[in-house]
Fold each of these.
Amino acid sequence: MSIITYGSLVPDPYTYTDSYRAKAESDHLLPIEVYARAFFLAAPSWVLLLMRIRNRLVGWFGLKTSQIPENREHILLTSSFEMGEEFGLFKVCDKSEHGIVLGQDDKHLDFRIVIEQKREGDSVFVELTTHVRFKNTMGRLYFGLIKPFHNIISRQLVKRMSNPGLTTA
């Protein structure tokens, strides 16, 4: 049961797609902002360090970079994640009651991160799906380099996001 009709918000055709899911600690559907917040706050400190290194390196190639603001946690805790709002490299592209699409278009690739919560029987599952469309060889090379990190980070994030109370305390 997909809540968001993605339409043109998710690159088509997808060059790469992956999806990770975890059973949520809560058996109740929560406001999607709770999971969007957890997506950002669940990142271990080593991920933030990798993002800083990434930003320094890719700037040389003219790719989009972002700064991690000092008041990052405050911004995330007070945000309602409205369409067009940006959090570093992640822009809110679409949002519904049970799903949110974050992403960015750049000269080498377009990506979308879909965060959804889905009820299955008496349980709720949090799902984190990544869609990527490569635009050129640079996009393929870039993603080839980061894919091992992406897989590790995505698995850890979805596990941590499944208990959002731990990431926002």
Amino acid sequence: MSKFKECPNCNCIRYIIQKLSLLDDENIKYTLKCRKCSAIWGITQNLFSPINKYQYIWLEGKLIQLHRWVWEQRYNCKLSRYDCIHHINRNKGDDRVYNLMLMDRYTHNGDFHRITLICNRCNHEWLPKAFEVRTCPKCKSPYWDAEKKR
């Protein structure tokens, strides 16, 4: 709630998001209504956030991811739960339309986020199960990512 300012009439910080609209490929507009004095005002917000975290909005009693809402508004379609919106620059906070790409979950999780590692010692290829890889699973070398000395 702190990203929006107080009510211009009574300075109350309790309000309801009355309407949410996509202005262009980079901005959205919130229409807010004060719970105390019923004043209505609007706020424009850029869809880019330098913080690499998903942004969420409350809409019709549901908490939804902002990038999914932006895609649905821009292309006038309803996404299924099997559809996935990929952030091209891998910044989860950048919800601008030209940074989003639609794909199915299988393709997204398989091709875009799967990293194959190659051991420089024994040329073994593997998919890591942990985020931080310490040793090659075949030759058990902790120097799998360093060049071999001749």
Amino acid sequence: MTKNLKPKPTTSEKITNWVGTPFSICVHTVAFLGIYSLYFYGLGFDEINLILTTVVSLEAIYLALLIQMSVNRQAQSLQDVQEDIEEISEDVEEIAEDVEGLEKNVDEIQEDVEDLGQDMDKISKEVVEMNEDDEVTMSSTQQKTLENIELTLKHIINEIDAIKQNVAGQTKHKQPEAAQDKKPRWKIF
């Protein structure tokens, strides 16, 4: 069940909303024309026009006040939205900075892995040379340890490649347009 975040309209909002409807126009037209029926009750046109002018003037004053109240509420609502947009923009900028930091970390890890890979290649070559020369014989424990180190290094390289691809994929999909231009697109008066 979702909550309605919009507050319940006040009486002034209801009146302002009603005045802007076609039904309101019809009611006002009938009332303005109907006031001239007072002529049949003995009032003259001067008195009818005086009553009509007074009623219309009072209605205009109250409608202007109600409309100004609506405008003030809308201005406050727009200001709240602008503040929310600014907060979201700041969050997006922070996320973009975090992603840049992650990319740097992944690059550093990749460099370390490449260095480890080069060291592993050197060690592998030395092991091959030692086996070929038969000058030094490794014990089976040393051979197994070396093989385990080799497998572990290969596993680490594969995991870092996967992390780097994952971070690169997230950077492409999650970086919103607002983070690219870093300028608010809307201007509130």
